[in-house]
Design brief:
heterodimer, A: 229 residues, mainly alpha, 2 domains, three-stranded parallel sheet, 52% helix, 3% strand, B: 170 residues, alpha/beta, Rossmann fold, four-stranded parallel sheet, 9 helices
Chain lengths: 229, 170
Amino acid sequence: MKTATINQDVTDRLEIGDVTACYTCATCSGRCPATGIDGFDPRKLVRMAVLGMKDELVEARWPWICTMCGRCEYACPMDVKIGSLVRNIRSLRDRDKVPGTLHKGVEAALKTGNNFSIPKDDFIFVMNDVAEEFAEEEGLPDFEIPLDKTGANILCTVHGKLPFGQTDDLKWWWKIFYAAGESWTVPSDNWEGVNWALYTGDDAAMRTMVGRIVENMERLEAKSLLLPE
Amino acid sequence: MATRLGLQKWYPDALKQFTMYTVFDLLIKYIQEGRITLDPSRHPQLATYHDPCNYGRKSEMIFGHGYYEEPRWILNQCSANWVDMFPNRAAQFCCGAGGGAWLTPYEQERLAYGRKKVDQLKATGASLVVVSCHTCYDQFYKALRLTYGMENLQVKYLWAMVAEAIVMDQ
């Protein structure tokens, strides 16, 4: 039977248990802040999955309007993994049809080590330039950015948007590290701390990016990792 | 969250080689060890805290611990005047830009989504919202603030609150 087959397929891919456990109580719909937007409603989404409407789900805008915030899943009395369902649906989209800049960012990250394709030289220049500005503003003439320092206590990744255009927001943590007398470092390669593959449902890319952080930890012999955000 | 999830899933051995800190754990460590000293009077205006989905509810669901109390403890150290939104913690509303939605072209949908958050925020009367997620920051500062008539709303990262409250011993 078609429905059962596709449902099994969805279940296998998601490792979500059985979406057919849903008894359509609509707790999820009531909990979801996006219910009603573009006709969206998590219960409908789950129902479509139960009915095996895979192509319709993959083509729909809903899985991309949903923010996978988990408010629905948290309260689901049947423990349907709605967030995982959404991510899986996203993963089934052709990569060139992933909306917005999400997949472009993943491609950029795989190729260049960061979501915005900032070249290494530019990154080093920006970091040093902003550090100089920071040292002057705070009256800390001995402040320097410890790029690629070996044996530091903390290794930090960087949110790509900060060197890309919100450089002032780099300074908060610098000030905290300085005041705490911390030994820290930032790698000059593969420094991106934000992994958009989580959102596009791309496990292979996600794994590669996490693996690069591990490589940096090993290469720089850092003792601990500060997670981004 | 992707990094934490990926390490746990694909690099469990690496996790045995090094310590992993969330921003909350590290800030609490510095404060409790007396490595930084904070002055809460630096932030006198009424503030409120927005729980991020990833470090809150989703962290609770995936890793068994939601970072609800940690940011509130930190906020207490750098603000003497803040209130919670309702509902909060595991029941909070997403800002509307999470899960990559900030990077999609569905702007109208994202703004409509954020309306519930805006109602919550306005009900507190706060003029400053503290966030601990970069996407929440962008949604509040660049989108919701301007769309919903809150031009004077201040948006600050939790670590910016901390950095601004540091008393430097010279």
